[in-house]
UniProtKB/TrEMBL annotation, chains A, B:
It comes from the Bacteria. GO terms for molecular function: DNA binding. This is LacI family DNA-binding transcriptional regulator. Residues 3-57 form the HTH lacI-type domain. Keywords: DNA-binding, Transcription, Transcription regulation. Pfam families: LacI (PF00356), Peripla_BP_3 (PF13377). SMART domains: HTH_LACI. The lineage of its organism: Bacteria, Bacillati, Bacillota, Bacilli, Bacillales. SUPFAM superfamilies: lambda repressor-like DNA-binding domains (SSF47413), Periplasmic binding protein-like I (SSF53822).
Length: 340, 340
DNA sequence: TTGTATGCGTTATCAA
DNA sequence: TTGATAACGCATACAA
């Protein structure tokens, strides 16, 4: 059996309660006993038992992470390691641990979350995605359980603490960028329409076009998941139009990357035949051919802030919801070209 | 306060102990009371309190995951999401939760692990990497704490439960494959020499050469991390030799992918000017230009088996250590060419 | 088949 | 400034 608070008490010649007070560094204990007790702890290699502690404490010092469907392609996106890196940085410094929950279906994810919350495994939760009609969110909301969301909440975005980029503006900006380069036929390629990111970026794209009095052509908008087979068709279809787009706004580097391949197979060169601009600025966008012009959304910081925000929420549940917008930055590389 | 076992007991008109027995589905409780109790649980939406349960139980039903240095480039490798997907599949089905621990330095990782183990947060641990002289492993070993390792242990590999590929043979096989295509000047590109994977693959590479009476040329072996700036030089150096290699064994798709870019910049075409074969068979290798011939190491299964193995270990600590070798498979694509 | 009593390792309340 | 004692919510040995 591991060493307990009683053992320490015995060695230090005090009662367990005193040891407990030393652990929490209570000010009403003499420096002398503190030293004595600490030495005993050192000597025995004592570490407080987490289970007992959180039982008495009603706090677990752990944060739950809800990931999207693990069989989904987005799961493979380096976005997640990076955002977790940010979260973990803060968590670590605030002595919180990380508890991860995922599943193969939305049902599984939901049940996983419920168990994790109901059984008191975590003090708060970070949703690593935002989608519409998410029952995970409804549950948290109803339970009034502390949580933060990375992305823009579908509803009631003022009442829910979240960390996000201004994806609308970002998409609008890059679309304008293409317009300025002389492109008029601009396509939009993205993933699931259930995700708020997709919706926001699409809105931005459309808004830029409207501002330039260009009518939105639904043939130019593609929503396939197409890193694999399926999507290639959607893309080749897009490019086989009588008037194919001369440039594309792609909602993710990973997708953009898949496109490069598809385009290559079709004999189209980037940026000579077609320009591409994308999002996230993953390592990938740097080492691809050509290097991609991409919007850096500062993923690491997204994670950092979401953790900070959640921990504050846990400690002060009654504070009003916070919205934190992480600035983005367009990184110009060589995937866009002026239309002559 | 949430609903407890007492509430259920009251509603069902039994004592808490009876409820407890129903929870663990004890055979010595009548079907009738079981029904009665279960209905009460249902009614109240009761879920056992995790902290109390694991305190009384001395088990947490959670698995600790130790990741490598989060600032390291390998962290970005899609290997991790995929292996976690496998782990999580089993964990979920066996009612285990996942606890993740990482850090920015080896020191942090070590301390994180110690706390997680000592404070009793987890029942067992999976190391998601294997490197030489790992104090994390020494600690686990000394504590006789249940753990499994993904990769080959540096020492005492018979005494430590692990799940691995036969990386030696795999590397040997692909090197032979290149030899058979007529290549004699074959380079080897890999990451850190602290990682067992790297060492094993290198051994395989060398063994194949020796079998063909080709002397090992250290100029042909590169160990840089070179997805970013630094490494490109190492590569161009390699290719600027008087007698540059005509083909490369690259220890990871991500690296191979970075190479494609570097090579392109140098005006070298794959596979016409130089052949490349790599490992892991990530999505990436499929959508790169050209698609990469790569060794599928079945990452998902690696995760699956490691979790299975650990849970068995947790339940039967005295069983001898297991070694599980996951078969690999060479996936031929278009990055290798016969030397004419 | 069920109930009673006790313990799991802490923290917190109340005394001293 | 410290000690005794009762929670925290559940599991289990022992009784009945």
């Amino acid at each position: 059996m591991a060493v307990t608070i009683k053992d320490v008490a015995k060695v230090a010649n005090v009662t367990p309660s005193t040891v407990s007070r030393v652990i929490s560094n209570s000010p009403r204990i003499s420096e002398k006993t503190k030293r004595k007790v600490r030495q005993a702890m050192e000597e025995l290699g004592y570490l407080p038992n987490f289970k007992a502690r959180s039982l008495a404490n009603r706090s677990t010092q752990t944060i739950g992470l809800v990931m999207p469907n693990s069989t989904d392609k987005v799961f493979q996106n380096p976005f997640f390691p990076e955002v977790i890196r940010g979260i973990s940085k803060i968590a670590h410094s605030m002595e919180y641990a990380l508890h991860i929950s995922t599943g193969e279906t939305e049902e599984e994810i939901y049940e996983g979350l419920v168990r994790m919350v109901q059984s008191g495994r975590v003090d708060g939760v970070i949703l690593l995605y935002s989608r519409i009609n998410d029952n995970v969110m409804s549950f948290l909301e109803e339970k009034k359980f502390p949580y933060t969301i990375i992305g823009k909440p579908y509803l009631n975005s003022d009442g829910i603490s979240h960390v996000d980029n201004d994806n609308f503006s970002a998409a609008k900006e890059v679309t304008k960028y293409l317009l300025k380069l002389g492109h008029k036929r601009i396509g939009f390629v993205a993933g699931s329409l259930n995700l708020m990111v997709t919706l926001e970026r699409k809105r931005g794209y459309e808004s830029a076009l409207l501002d330039s009095d260009i009518t939105i052509n639904n043939d130019y908008i593609v929503h396939e998941e197409f890193l694999r087979e399926g999507g290639q068709e959607a893309i080749s279809e897009l490019l086989s139009l009588k008037e194919p787009p001369t440039s594309l706004v792609v909602a993710d580097d990973l997708m953009a990357f898949g496109m490069l391949n598809t385009l290559d197979e079709m004999g189209l060169r980037v940026p000579d035949d077609i320009s591409i601009i994308s999002f996230n600025n993953l390592l990938l966008s740097e080492v691809s051919r050509p290097p991609l012009t991409s919007v850096d959304i500062n993923i690491y910081n997204l994670g950092l802030q979401s953790a900070k925000c959640l921990i504050e929420k846990i400690k002060q549940p009654d504070e009003p919801a916070k919205r934190i917008i992480i600035p983005y930055k367009v990184i110009e590389r060589n995937s866009c070209k002026k239309l002559s």
